[in-house]
Amino acid sequence: MFRRYxxxxxxxxxxxxxxxxxxxxxxxxxxxxxxxxxxxxFKQFEAETxxxxxxxxxxxxxxxxxxxxxxxxxxxDILITADAGRLEYAKELGLLRQFNSANIQSAVxxxxxxxxxxxxxxxxxxxxxxxxxxxxxxxRLSTYEALVDDDFADSLLVRSSxxxxxxxxxxxxxxxxxxxxxxxxxxxxxxxxxxxxxGNDRDQMKALVAGDGDYAIxxxxxxxxxxxxxxxxxxxxxxxxxxFFPNQEGRGTHVNVSGAGITANAPNQENAVKLLExxxxxxxxxxxxxxxxxxxxxxxxxxxxxVAAWGEFKADDLNLSFLGEYNTxxxxxxxxxxxx
Length: 340
Ligand SMILES: [Fe+2]
Fold this sequence. Notes:
By secondary structure, the chain is an alpha/beta fold. Helices cover about 40% and strands about 15% of the residues.
């Protein structure tokens, strides 16, 4: 029987070897998330229910491909991704099934769940603009749209367009303004970049503090990870970073979820529902908030003090299924505008 992290290695050694199927005492999870918070929560669920949680960790696209290839024989019960767009894509491919849970419906606001019940958000993150407070007061910042203005020439730091977080941000702009305006926005951002995209969100903040640019577009929890890092250099970077929530006067800041769906052929469907219900309990949401600096999807859970210190903000309430719907268009626009 596979145990947790042994799975990933074994997967490559013996691809025909699968989880024990239909075993009522287990639930099999394919997840793109790789955080300590998740591992701790799975352990807690095992202790409380006696249902063992088997985990395969890989990139979302890899997991979706694996689910497609495995078809009816897939051992997976749950797919977890760090983006609503990938869950929408899995749903479109017929890889997910609808589930009905009064607990989930009452815990998670409708905006953070699929309207047809194929997936639910587990945590929320904002894609914000940050600056170095030791040499900038952030007073020029207002909206994502304004970042293309001359005010921001040669000043923007942002990662590659291959990353889903940027694809979803652009998808949200397509949803709000149409493809033509989204394209001119992307071209304007490219024109205002301080350097060609490189590295991850944390690297943008390190470059910012090093003086390579004046503003970085990043996900909120990475700010929390730097601000609380055990590494003194990272902590120094974090201490100089200030978070700005764009579009507060209008539609609100772009947010995305980490979320989960139950697979179309889940052999342990009931256990899958139980695990998802557990992950949106107050107790589990507190773990996401406190150890991974994410915003809980429930509104009765306290934020990490570091996260609370960034201030309250209004989130864009765009239906997150649009992030999946416009993903292909977003990727095309990035290619066209030369956002590497
Ligand atoms: Fe991330």
